[in-house]
């Protein structure tokens, strides 16, 4: 079963790397920029997870296949550059949702194998799923998806929690993986389609109107127009 998890990890790297390439193209970056965004998106979350868990060396150092997969993804994308520009705006969120679901499973599974508690495993799953996308968006000067109103991290938490519960109950691993994947992916796609979002809590202060406007006097634009009218009249005289 470890082979299935490994190939799911590779699939997540490809999907996330492709999302980085798409965003790089839309941000008008050169091939090196595409490679950087693809790399940080594909292996950024897993790298942070391994560092937090104290795994040395991190996964892509011990297995450089991940790097070759990212290079191959970027190379194929360069060959099909014109097709990338034709992709709809909805492709990036959907690809990101698929990568998120895959990486949540990988991160949670790896943490549980190391003997961490369920809460820590869920956090590691969320970290694996969202950290790479956050780095990608920051480098592209975008507000990271996880910091927006849309349901993003919540979907990752739900998927990781489902994985921990089913794994603890002794449910067969293929079922655990499938249910966790569908939970995260289903919630994220539902949020994209129906624009579901968590409530926003913020203090809103409304400044009082200027004394001139409240008293019925002329506003600044009106005063300017009045001055222009008076100057024109003076010139005519």
Which helices and strands appear, and what pairs or packs with what?
Elements: H1 2-26, H2 31-53, H3 59-62, H4 65-79, H5 81-85, H6 91-113, H7 118-139, H8 153-168, H9 173-194, H10 211-214, H11 220-236
Region (Disordered): 211-237
Subcellular location: Cell membrane
Domain Glycine transporter: 6-79, 94-167
Can you characterise this structure?
This protein has eleven helices and no strands. The protein is mainly alpha-helical and 237 residues long. The chain has one domain (2-194). α6 packs parallel to α8 (153-168) and α8 (153-168) runs antiparallel to α9 (173-194). The N and C termini lie far apart (95 Å). The mean pLDDT is 88.
Question: What attributes does this structure have?
Answer:
transmembrane helix; 237 residues; cell membrane; transmembrane; Gly_transporter; membrane
Q: How many discrete structural domains?
A: 1
Compute the CA-based radius of gyration: 25 Å
User: What are the segments in which pLDDT stays under 50 over at least 5 consecutive residues?
Assistant: none
The helix-and-strand class reads: mainly alpha
Main beta sheet strand tally, sense and closure = none
Helix content range: over 70%
> How many β-strands, per DSSP?
0
Task: Provide the β-strand percentage band.
Answer: under 5%
Q: What's the pLDDT, averaged over the residues? A: 88
- Our count of helices gives 11
Distance between the termini: 95 Å
Main location: membrane
Family: Belongs to the UPF0126 family.
InterPro entries: Gly_transporter
Keywords: Cell membrane, Membrane, Transmembrane, Transmembrane helix
